[in-house]
Amino acid sequence: MLELLVAMFIGLFLIGGVSAIYIVSKRGYTETENVSRVNESARFALYLLSNNLAHLGFFGGANPNPPSLLNSLAAITGDCTGTASVVDTANHFRVVKATSATPVSCIADAQSDSDVLIIKSVRPVPFSDGALDDLSDNDGTVDAPEALNANRVYLWASRLGSDGQLFRGNVQPDLTRISDGVAWEYLANIYYVRNVAGREPTLSRKALRWNGTALVVDTEDLVEGVERLRVVPGVLGGNYVTPQVKYMETADMTTSDWVSVASVQLRLLVRSADIDPGGVSRNLRYVLLEGNEAGYDYFEPGAGDRRYRTVVQETVNVRNFVYP
Questions:
Q1: Domain region containing 191
Q2: Do the Cβ atoms of 237 and 256 come closer than 8 Å?
Q3: What are φ and ψ of residue 56, in 5° steps?
Q4: What DSSP string describes 154-179?
Q5: 321 falls within a domain
Q6: Which residue among 11, 18, 57, 266 is the one 20 to 30 A from 222 at the CA level?
Q7: What are the φ/ψ torsions at residue 125 (nearest 5 degrees)?
Q8: 127, β-bridge pairs
Q9: DSSP β-bridge partners for residue 236
């Protein structure tokens, strides 16, 4: 009996030790997995935003300001109003502060205290009726390097930098009206942090697309775990000899400032989807803006929070701005 009790005690001791090692290993694995997933999500979100911003203001040579740009599209379901409208190319870049769930008219589920980023441009792939690649193929149909997609929107733009027209790919553009024109696929995206009860906060966007029956502005979820988005425009001032970039609060920017944006600062706060029940409380302060001209801003999750978070940032140079 004594030997049995000793064996049971040793067995329980070994089981306790193995269990402790397993718990520590499991916690370490969970922590490592959370860090890896958060960092991967943060890099991908920055890539999506910076890649879109890099083409900001590019309209294939057409002047994006009215009245030179004519809209030939029918009403678009779910479109925003005002400067956020997907066909308002004159306001091709805007940043809106989300003080409520509805920062712009087509968004009703935005995370407050975050930013909404509005970008309109064209994809840098030209379509022509052959003049750009084969002079013998000028048959009056845009088909080079391929035919236009009937379910996408294009900008028929003058290469002389003046006129332009939006149209859907199922309608052949008026080649006689802009004889030197080139077609470019039109892109309109409104990025924001989507906050839906019971779900992780997500970097999402409202995008112009074909839903099978009509053109709509629809919601696309992009990266889960993005908790805050901060966008600070850098406006070019001074002159061509001594240019200066000043990062500004969007509320202080004028119309001429918006078309003079030479760079954009991006900051994202990204959190892990999993909670570590045995981890320490992460009552930390995550700085989103650091006291420059655009102010100072931070986020505190509060006591008891057990999610891993990180703040990532990138500055994107805007190559197609228009100096007033």
A1: 61-224
A2: no
A3: -55, 130
A4: EEEEETTSS-EEEEETTS---TTTTT
A5: yes
A6: 57
A7: -130, 110
A8: 183
A9: 245
Which 8-state DSSP code applies to residue 145? S
Distance between CA atoms of 264 and 257, rounded to whole angstroms?
13
Same domain for 73 and 203, yes or no, is: yes
Residue 286 tokens read as: 């995550």
Number of domains in the chain: 2
- What is this structure's pTM? 0.85
Other Cβ atoms less than 10 A from the Cβ of 17: the count is 10
Copy the structure tokens of residue 295: 């102010």
**112-117: which pairs have CB atoms within 8 A and are 24 or more residues apart?**
112/195, 113/228, 113/299, 114/192, 114/193, 114/228, 114/229, 114/230, 115/192, 115/229, 115/230, 115/231, 116/190, 116/191, 116/192, 116/229, 117/49, 117/190, 117/191, 117/192, 117/229, 117/231
Q: Domain boundary at 224, 258, 286, which?
A: 224
Strand, helix or coil for residue 237: strand
pLDDT tens digits, residue range 118-157? 999 999 888 887 655 555 666 677 877 888 899 999 988 8
Q: Which pair of tokens denotes residue 184?
A: 């470019």
Residue 241 burial (C-beta neighbours within 10 Å; 0-12, 13-18, 19+): exposed
Contact 72, 166 (CB under 8 A): yes
Quick one: DSSP state of residue 250?
G
9 within a domain of the structure (yes/no): no
Question: 36 or 10, which is more confident?
Answer: 36
- CB neighbour class for 267 (10 Å; exposed up to 12, middle 13-18, buried from 19): buried
Size (the chain), residues: 324
Contact 98, 192 (CB under 8 A): yes
Name which residue leads in pLDDT, 293 or 248: 248
3-state helix, strand, coil in the chain (%, to 5): 20, 35, 40
